[in-house]
Each structure stands twice: as C-alpha cells, then as structure tokens.
Amino acid sequence: METLSTRLRVPSQARKGEIITLRCIIFHAMDNGYRFDTQGTYIPMHIIDTFICRYNGEEIFRAFQGTGISANPYLTFSVRATESGVFDFIWRDDRGGVHTAKANITVTA
Amino acid sequence: MPFHLLAPRRRWLQRLGAWGMGMSILPSGLTQANTLPPNPRLAPIEESPETAMQKILRGAKSQRGRIEVQLASVAESGNLVPIKIHVPSAMTASDYVREVHILAMRNPKPWAATYEFTPRSGRAEVETKLRLSDTQDILVLARMSDDSWWHESSHVVVSIGACESMELRY
C-alpha cells in the first residue's frame, strides 16, 4: 500500500476543560471519476471517503467525504481537552486503504 | 458513450478492485482497531439534489437557522473553495449537535460531506475545502441530539468550475 504524507497541527499542551482545535491534512489526489489524464486515459474515482479521530482510544469525531471535497482534503475540528494522551487520526480510502497519524497532548490542571 | 451509461460497469470494476485490494491487505497484519467500514453515503452514480436531500433527511422536516456558514461569495476556481461551519450549541451529553451535512446543489453528486460530533467535541465547528462544478447554492443541514433538523444555505459564484479544468487535477 502506498504511504501518503499527512500533516497535523495539534497543540502539545492544553488546560483541562479547554476546547482545542485540531487541524489535519492528507496529501491525496481525490480523483472524482470525471477526469482524464493528458493522454486521454480515464482516471477512475479514488477518494478518501472516511476519517475518524480517536482521543485515548475513544472516538470523538468522524467525517464522511464524497467527490465534492477538494484534493488534499483538509479538516479542522474541535475537542475538549480532558486528559493527557494521544490523538489517533485515521483515514480510509474507497478501495480499503488505511492511513494513520498520531499526536500527543499534555493536559495540565 | 455518456457517463451515466458507463457507470454500472465502472462500479463493478471498482468493487472488484476494492475486493482484490482487501484480500491482499488482510494477511499483512492490519490491526482491527484501524479498520473502518465502507462509507455508506458515497453515491455510486450521479443523483439529483432532491434525492441527495431525501437520503439525508428521510422525511424529517428542517427549519432554517442556527447554523453559521462562512463561505466566500466568489471563488475563482472550483477546485478549492474553503468553507467553515459553526453550529452554536451547549455540547453537553443531553444537548449537542449530532451531524452536519454539506450538499453542493449543482454538483453531479451533490452530497459532499457528513461530519459526526460527540459531546466531547466541545464545539460543533468544522472547516474544510470543497470542490464545486459551478456557481451554486451550498446547503448545510444539521441534526441535533433531539432529532430536530436545521439548515442554512449560502450562494457561491464559481468562475471556473472543477469539472471544466479536466487536465488539471489540483
């Protein structure tokens, strides 16, 4: 399986109860199935269709995406910081490929 | 041949492809924690905005309001159109925003995205970038924890649609 590069922006520290913003991007062409390459060959649909974020193993946010989302899909969402731990970012494409990334956070009282 | 006639065959090919890949991935030790189910909302063929709306609302009535949509009024290229959605809510265990849906009413497949929140989200806010085929209305639907539906729509003028720039993938 190809490895796709991802980029995360997650604050490394937060206060307990604070609402923090998580940003993530995955570099993927999101081929919508309406395009042809320069040789006129049809490019079939291939998109990142599901994304989930887990906070210490518990799911906090889920996204389903269609062809109406741009290439290199970018997402920003929020979470209330409750405890130190790890955020798991998981992307799935419509052919079953899975891509993951992790970020740690330290929560102070 | 027009696209809609090719679609069933393409769908079959895609399914075969997905199956083949799944088979090749499983023995390589993919952990159960990272397997996600297929996206049930992905439309296999083109559909009308009305159909896409009905598939989400399933007969429920929606009222206008409660949603704040930030979208540029003019976008030079349909390939990248930033959108920001905020649904003001207490986000407690008994009162929170469950889902937010984005529909691009003149795209060949109008359903663009669905976001699912939990009370732990703290704030029902999401930001992403859309791919739009044409000048159109963007409809945002939100479902609250009490199953009430709200909507807001926003108009965007797209100078060059994403479907017109065929040779450019980005």
What does this structure look like?
The complex is a heterodimer of chains A (109) and B (170). By secondary structure, chain A is an all-beta fold. Chain A is built from no helices and ten strands. Chain A has one domain: Sandwich (Immunoglobulin-like), CATH 2.60.40.10. Chain A has a five-stranded mixed β-sheet, with no helix packed on it. A three-stranded antiparallel β-sheet of chain A has the order 1-3-8, with no helix packed on it. In chain A, strands 4-5 form a two-stranded antiparallel ribbon. In chain A, a hairpin with a 5-residue loop joins strand 4 and strand 5. In chain A, 39% of the residues are buried. The mean pLDDT of chain A is 93. About 10% of the residues of chain B have low confidence. Chain B has a domain of 114 residues: Sandwich (Immunoglobulin-like). In chain B, the strands form two sheets. In chain B, strands 1, 3, 5, 6, 8 and 9 form a six-stranded mixed β-sheet that branches. Chain B is globular. Chains A and B meet through strand 4, strand 6, strand 7 and strand 8 of A and helix 1, strand 6 and strand 7 of B.
Give the % helix of chain B.
10-25%
Classify the secondary structure makeup of chain B into a structural class: alpha+beta
Please tell me how large the radius of gyration of chain A is. Answer: 16 Å
**CATH T-level topology of chain A:** Immunoglobulin-like
The CATH H-level superfamily of the domain at 47-160 in chain B is SoxY domain
In whole angstroms, the N-to-C terminal distance of chain A is 42 Å
Kindly report the spatial arrangement of strands forming the biggest sheet of chain A: 2-10-9-6-7
CATH H-level superfamily of chain A: Immunoglobulins
From the N-terminal CA to the C-terminal CA of chain B, the straight-line distance is 26 Å
Oligomer: heterodimer
Low-confidence stretches of chain A: none
- Beta-strand portion of chain A reads over 45%
Q: Tell me the Rg of chain B in angstroms.
A: 18 Å
Beta-strand level of the residues of chain B, as a percent range? Answer: 35-45%
